């Protein structure tokens, strides 16, 4: 599906073949340095629809000069190699997401092994781990990375990149992914928010494999990096999922309140009794399917990691599964 955001900026929206996953947005900037932001999942039907959409508004893919991948998740990065091969465009991605973007076989094996180990730590049983592994292999197929003999260009925080007619600034916002970037032009009042700032969904914090900047999950980094974009002078946010929207600071404040409330809930539950991550999932996000419980566990592990850094909880490992409890509340005299 195609719509015009403003003159020379197109929004292209495609489905993602994972149950419950929202459609993903790509943005095409026309101009002297035409640029595509994100690529969609590696699915033939998505690629065909993308080519049809470009044809409908008369854009020749061979004139594309760059492909910017905002982070290396399958819905944003999956078709990067295919679009690069057909356009000759340069591919740019933040250096902290390059390993994940390349998807080398040895990296995939480690990624699956560590995710299964963490899932066991959260409390998933053996038969559920088998289903989770199956799902993880499917995710890798939807974003096969780099097969050919080329490498993406790495970009860093504060870099300037030309998108269409205007220069934009890169803001590194780790949390949903180690190398996620937002891209802003304050004169134009535009923020490409990727999955960092969405209007109705809170982005799921990543599980880092390997650990990143001393953390296992991205929630702590996410809560730091939403402050990096809160006060930008922008009128319109072009998100990775959902329609363009306004009200950046209001949306961020709303998310901070939600995370603070959840943080308090997790701490209160651990003051009552010992709990595993999945015990917390079933208290806070009841009646989820396997994928829903897995995603909820990632988020709650994030809260536990922050509570641990704050010195408020401890855990024990029994049969590879973590059991968490809060230190007793101090007595006020
Ligand atoms: Zn996404």
Look at the structure and give the CATH class of the largest domain.
Alpha Beta
End-to-end separation = 63 Å
| Mean pLDDT reading | 94
Low-confidence stretches: none
User: Which cofactor or ligand species appear?
Assistant: zinc ion
Backbone structural class? alpha/beta
Order of helix and strand elements from N to C terminus: EEEEHEHHEHHHEEEEEEEHHEHHHEE
Q: What percent of residues are in strands?
A: 15-25%
CATH topology-level name of the largest domain: Metallo-beta-lactamase, Chain A
CATH superfamily of the largest domain: Ribonuclease Z/Hydroxyacylglutathione hydrolase-like
Rough outline = globular
Q: Describe the strand arrangement of the main beta sheet, using strand numbers.
A: 1-2-3-4-5-6-7
Radius of gyration: 21 Å
Number of domains: 2
List the total number of helices.
Answer: 11
The percent range for helix content is 25-40%
Number of strands: 16
* Level-2 CATH architecture of the largest domain: 4-Layer Sandwich
Largest sheet: 7 strands, mixed
